[in-house]
Amino acid sequence: MRLRWVAVTVFVFSAVLNYLDRQVLATMVDIWRTSGRLSPGFAFDYADYGMVLAVFSIAYALSAPFMGWFLDRVGLNTGMAVSVVVWAVASFGTGTVHSLHQLLFWRALLGVAEAAGVSAQAKVSGMYLLPEERALGAATQQLGISIGAGLAPAFTVFFAYNYSWRWTFFAAACASVLWIPLWLGTARVIPPAVDRAARNKHAFELIRDSRLWALMAANALGMTLYSLWTNWAPTYLVRVHHLTPPQAARYTWAVPVAAYFGAFAGGALSWRWIRNGASAVAARKRACLVGSALAAITAAVPLMPTPLLATAGMALSLFLVASWSTNLYTLPIDLYGAGRAAFGVSALVFSFGLMQALVSRPLGQAIERYGFAPVCLILAALPLAGTLLVQWRVREA
Questions:
Q1: pTM of this prediction?
Q2: What's the angle, vertex CA 186, arms to CA 78 and CA 15, rounded to 5?
Q3: Domain extents for the chain?
Q4: Residue 142 and residue 274: Cα distance in Å, rounded?
Q5: What is the sign, positive or negative, of the torsion defined by CA atoms of 232, 237, 241, 245?
Q6: Is 24 helix (H, G, I), strand (E, B) or coil?
Q7: The CA-based dihedral angle spanning residues 337, 341, 343, 348, taken in that order and rounded to the nearest 10 degrees
Q8: C-alpha–C-alpha distance, residues 70 and 93, integer Å
Q9: pLDDT tens digits for range 259-308
Q10: Phi and psi for 256 in degrees, rounded to 5?
Q11: If one looks up domain 4-188+208-393 in CATH, what number appears?
């Protein structure tokens, strides 16, 4: 029992690699646009980047329920080993591209494989952690995401400017493959707190539960704000404050790191309420309400006059939406248990991917034409709208 957090911590590294692999492109797009020496060899602008995000997100969304079912069916270890191998292949393939169509293909494959990541972390929480600890477990996943996304700008700049932009993707692929034996060795030594074979071939029955649909809709609304800062923070500083990509990388590492502290704060908040007697579902919903209401301050980010203050504003915004999302993503584990945890959370992954697929290209076009001010104003209200839907529709059985 004392070692189960060690296992959870080792699993966090999969989230680091998951987000490192996907987020290097967020910095690479500005390197490609501003450095002729590091051009990819084909035309690429913000609208194209929005299209790449959309294709990735469609693949991510459509495959998420099946990846969740796959993890629940074959088990955590086999499912994650397969998915990590595939996403490493996709990352390596990205480094070989010579056209936009090739880039779209490899990022779509990356989306398919990485759709397992969040669902797998939910299964780890359900298998290794007690109910009051699960939101803190989700916060450890956010730690991995934050570290991966925070490392991505400097990682990209280092390999692109010192070697080649292609080596950025090759190096990320190699790092992912090395994680597989680390986790399999850990899982062999540290057994889960619940049955190791926590599998459920009937997970698709959850589709008939209206509470799951309400969580999916809320996630699609609120995670628009998360998508904004995880994909467009470097571009914000390049476009609004006229920094170069290396200059922007000195600031934007702090934005995803703030997401971890937000996730931990949200998890600690619901943990405290559960310890004081609240049910797990009631505590998560209350924490969601607090985080989403405060996230409305996102509308003020475009008013920040310097790169440092703008970065602080983006970081605070992501801190709050991460606090909200940590509790939202823990609700399916509370409602459905470890045996169906991967599928329950995969439904939220599906809604996030579908949302990002639909909004990424229009968002890129809006940023190109109107800037960030109207985007921040609109997206600031969406987490609260999602929370109100959860308050209305999600009840304990």
A1: 0.73
A2: 70
A3: 4-188+208-393
A4: 21
A5: negative
A6: helix
A7: 110
A8: 24
A9: 888 988 998 899 899 989 999 899 999 999 999 999 999 999 999 999 99
A10: -65, -30
A11: 1.20.1250.20
